[in-house]
Amino acid sequence: MPPAPVLETHGLTVRFGGHVAVDAVTCAFAPGELVAIVGPNGAGKTTYFNLISGQIPASAGTVMLAGRDITRASASSRTRAGLGRAFQLTNLFPNLTVRENVRLACQARLGRGFRLFSLASDDRELTAEAEAILARVRLASLAGQTVAALSHGDQRKLEVAILIALDPLVYMFDEPTAGMSADEAPVVLDLIAELKADAGRAILLVEHKMDVIGKLADRIIVLHNGALAADGEPAEVIASDVVQEAYLGRDLTEPAPEPAPEPTPESTGETPHV
Ligand SMILES: Nc1ncnc2c1ncn2[C@@H]1O[C@H](COP(=O)(O)OP(=O)(O)OP(=O)(O)O)[C@@H](O)[C@H]1O
């Protein structure tokens, strides 16, 4: 029997004025599964993420985390309940060191809130944990640097470290390698692959790059005009009409173009229209 879903959306919908940006999306995500969310620009992927993580309220539908209805919960209480979203660097403290950023996340997970000063014994324990996580994300040598001094790629790695420290039930990444150099991106993708290998966490990944998706995803869902257009095994979904249309620009509502007619003696002088 497949494991019970850790995250579910039922009929999740948001309207902006007359525009339905996310349209009755019903989907479930299981522990240990990496699901890529794809679709053309404006399809509703980021808005779907915002509805799940609580950045915007739903117009209709529900979000369930580990069987609990969190539809009306604030973003911060969703984080405490186990939703871990990478926020494109907005959840870093730029003037603190790399180590302090991760320590604060460890503290937050332990329910001690964000405190810079704590008991000496706690302090040693938290520092050791933070350093172990930093080694995992290949940032150990930069532990004492302030965040503001890091490269963009290292800041993205730190974000993954902070999520690991929070130990969420569900990891959410929205284009995690955007803006990274060619040598930095594989490190973050390897980290995500390692998270996938770790027991029992669901990973949601919004991504445009098909090679990344092909390598990491167990399943792909496709959003199109806000609605769920496909959901299945990567190979099957990539070959589907809806993905071919979205990524190769073929408009499936139009009939296939007729092959250009062979020039005939009657069409003298006319160039065939291709
Ligand atoms: N706060 C908002 N107010 C009004 N319209 C919005 C708002 N947020 C998103 N939209 C609209 O909802 C639609 C979905 O946008 P969204 O950013 O979720 O798409 P996306 O699939 O993530 O696109 P991209 O791949 O370009 O990031 C778009 O038409 C967008 O303009």
Task: Explain what this protein looks like in three dimensions.
By secondary structure, the chain is of the alpha/beta class. The protein has 2 domains: 1-82 and 168-254, Rossmann fold (3-Layer(aba) Sandwich), CATH 3.40.50; 88-167, no CATH class. Helices cover 34% and strands 22% of the residues. The protein contains 9 helices and 10 strands. The strands form 2 sheets. A 6-stranded mixed beta sheet has the order 6-7-8-3-9-10, with helices on both faces. A 4-stranded antiparallel beta sheet has the order 2-1-4-5, covered by helices on one side. It is globular, with a radius of gyration of 23 Å. The N and C termini lie far apart (53 Å). Mean pLDDT is 85; it is low at 262-274. The chain binds adenosine-5'-triphosphate (ATP). Residues 16, 21, 39, 41-47 line the site of adenosine-5'-triphosphate. Residues 249-274 are annotated as: Disordered. Keywords: ATP-binding, Nucleotide-binding, Transport. Residues 7-250 form the ABC transporter domain. Residues 265-274 have a biased composition (Low complexity). GO terms for molecular function: ATP binding; ATP hydrolysis activity.
- The chain-level mean pLDDT equals 85
- What is the strand content? 15-25%
Global shape: globular
User: Over the alpha carbons, how many angstroms does the gyration radius reach?
Assistant: 23 Å
Counting helices, strands and paired strands, the structural category is: alpha/beta
